[in-house]
């Protein structure tokens, strides 16, 4: 299963590693090595980090806390205090180290620094009153994304992931309807 990074924020991309959360959740992070692979693929994170069992559990609880806060934010509710504690504690750890060289930006740090970075990214977004968080418009896709489009008119988490699938299904339905009325 491939990871996708379409949410517009790495904290939301982490939350998006659980798909179809309402009807039959699919968790792409089943074991620590899945998280190691996710970190390696996520833009802006170190190429490799070691994840042990305890750190893995911590990362999953940060993921669920971020998702809960995103839901609270979208629904205009008070932010869940337990989730706030988890995210704020992760963000209080030392962040990733970035260095500039001829080859570009080099990012380094361990998993705690990665989680700190993700928590800080989530905080910057969730604390921004202008940030427009939405759930994907495809039925069954529960991915939350940051809509930065002009007029906030984005409907899907990603065109490849959901937009084109919905459009193709609508096209097939129209063709079927046209055939049936002939
Ligand atoms: Zn989607």
TrEMBL record:
InterPro entries in the record: ABATE, ABATE_dom_sf, Znf_CGNR
Superkingdom of the organism of origin: Bacteria
Domain named Zinc finger CGNR: residues: 133-174
UniProt-listed Gene3D superfamilies: Jann2411-like domain (1.10.3300.10)
One Pfam family of this chain: ABATE
Protein name: Zinc finger CGNR domain-containing protein
Organism: Phytoactinopolyspora mesophila
Organism lineage: Bacteria, Bacillati, Actinomycetota, Actinomycetes, Jiangellales
């Amino acid at each position: 299963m491939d990871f996708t990074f379409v949410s517009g924020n790495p904290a939301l991309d982490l939350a998006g590693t659980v798909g179809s959360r309402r009807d039959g959740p699919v968790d792409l992070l089943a074991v620590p090595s899945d998280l190691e692979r996710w970190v390696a693929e996520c833009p802006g994170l170190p190429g490799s980090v070691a994840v042990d069992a305890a750190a893995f559990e911590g990362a999953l609880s940060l993921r669920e806390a971020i998702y809960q806060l995103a839901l609270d934010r979208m629904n205009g509710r008070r932010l869940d205090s337990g989730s706030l504690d988890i995210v704020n504690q992760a963000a209080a750890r030392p962040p990733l180290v970035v260095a500039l060289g001829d080859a570009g930006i080099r990012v380094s740090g361990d998993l705690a620094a990665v989680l700190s970075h993700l928590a800080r990214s989530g905080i910057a977004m969730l604390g921004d009153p202008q940030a427009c968080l939405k759930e994907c418009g495809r039925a069954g896709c529960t991915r939350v994304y940051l809509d930065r489009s002009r007029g906030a008119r984005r409907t899907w988490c990603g065109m490849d992931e959901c937009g084109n699938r919905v459009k193709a299904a609508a096209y097939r339905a129209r063709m079927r309807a046209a055939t049936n009325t002939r």
